């Protein structure tokens, strides 16, 4: 059946493509945060281990919400490592960085996800796609707070 929610097909496509980039960034950040959770060492081990777990758990829920929004718009959600690697703006970690470098990378990555979400707001707002605007706003709030909390550990 055709989708008739008041948003023209081309605009739904643009929004879905932008959400695909957000999904790729979010999933890549999830993997990176989970990796750092497993491999962090040093005096901040317990603090970072727990913080990273809280963050990757939240990200796991977010990827589902973003993918479901793409589907509600009538388009397939990207779902493979290959697709994500072609869409993401997040750099993978190489090797096992020290704890402070993990924090710095995750701050940059959290802010990258905010920029990805923010870049999609004008299109979604213009066609009055309030569910996507709400999703984007919520994601930006989460990532800005996570970046702030991580940054606070650096002094």
From TrEMBL:
GO molecular function, one term: oxidoreductase activity, acting on metal ions
Family matches, as PROSITE patterns: DPS_1 (PS00818), DPS_2 (PS00819)
Domain annotation Ferritin/DPS: ranges: 18-154
Transmembrane segments: none
Gene3D superfamilies listed in its UniProt record: 1.20.1260.10
Stored InterPro entries: DPS_DNA-bd, DPS_DNA-bd_CS, Ferritin-like, Ferritin-like_SF, Ferritin_DPS_dom
Matches recorded under SUPFAM superfamilies: Ferritin-like
Entries under CDD domains matching the protein: DPS
Signal sequence annotation: none
Family: Belongs to the Dps family.
Protein name: DNA starvation/stationary phase protection protein
Species of the source: Alkalilimnicola ehrlichii
């Amino acid at each position: 059946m055709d989708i008739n929610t008041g948003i023209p097909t081309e605009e739904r496509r643009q929004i879905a493509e932008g959400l695909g980039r957000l999904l790729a960034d979010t999933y890549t950040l999830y993997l990176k945060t989970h990796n750092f959770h497993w491999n962090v060492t040093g005096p901040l081990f317990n603090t970072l281990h727990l913080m990273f777990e809280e963050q990757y758990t939240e990200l796991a829920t977010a990827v589902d919400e973003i993918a479901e929004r793409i589907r509600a718009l009538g388009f397939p959600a990207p779902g493979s490592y290959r697709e994500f690697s072609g869409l993401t703006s997040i750099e993978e970690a190489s090797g096992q960085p020290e704890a402070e470098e993990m924090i710095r990378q995750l701050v940059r990555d959290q802010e990258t996800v905010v920029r990805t979400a923010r870049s999609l707001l004008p299109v979604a707002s213009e066609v009055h796609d309030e569910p996507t605007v709400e999703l984007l706003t919520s994601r930006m709030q989460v990532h800005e707070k996570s970046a702030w909390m991580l940054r606070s550990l650096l002094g």
